[in-house]
Amino acid sequence: MSTGCLFCNIVARTTPASIVLEDEHVLAFRDLRPVAPSHALVVPKKHITGINDATPEDAALLGQVLLGARTVAEQLGVGASGYRLVLNQGPDGGQSVFHVHCHVMGGRPMTWPPG
User: Is 101 considered catalytic here?
Assistant: First the structure.
């Protein structure tokens, strides 16, 4: 855990968040600046700065993030209609919090290309 990391602080419950899912591996919470009617973030409880910093040992944990995202989509009521998962890497990729996280967005049709 990185004490200077916003998402680590949410995991540690020192920063409040609207939590929608928690298990031993991941925590999911509503995005403070949603870009879709349903928008949550799924983060691993272990601090990994970005996908480029993940190691082969993190593979199972990253899988838990994706499975958590599916569960969150179902809980948000967008599992059947469809949703978008986004992982941003680095500033040019749109990453603003440097802790791996998966955006779960739904509740409206998603356009392509996204950005």
Answer: yes
**Cα separation of 28 and 5, whole Å?**
16
Catalytic annotation, pick one of 39, 99, 101, 103 = 101
Q: What is the pLDDT of residue 115?
A: 62
User: Chain-wide mean pLDDT for the chain?
Assistant: 95
pLDDT of 2 strictly over 80: no
pLDDT of 1 over the 90 cut: no
Query: Is residue 99 within 8 Å of 41, Cβ to Cβ?
Result: no
Question: What CATH fold (topology level) applies to the domain 6-106?
Answer: HIT family, subunit A (3.30.428)
Domain residue limits, the chain: 6-106
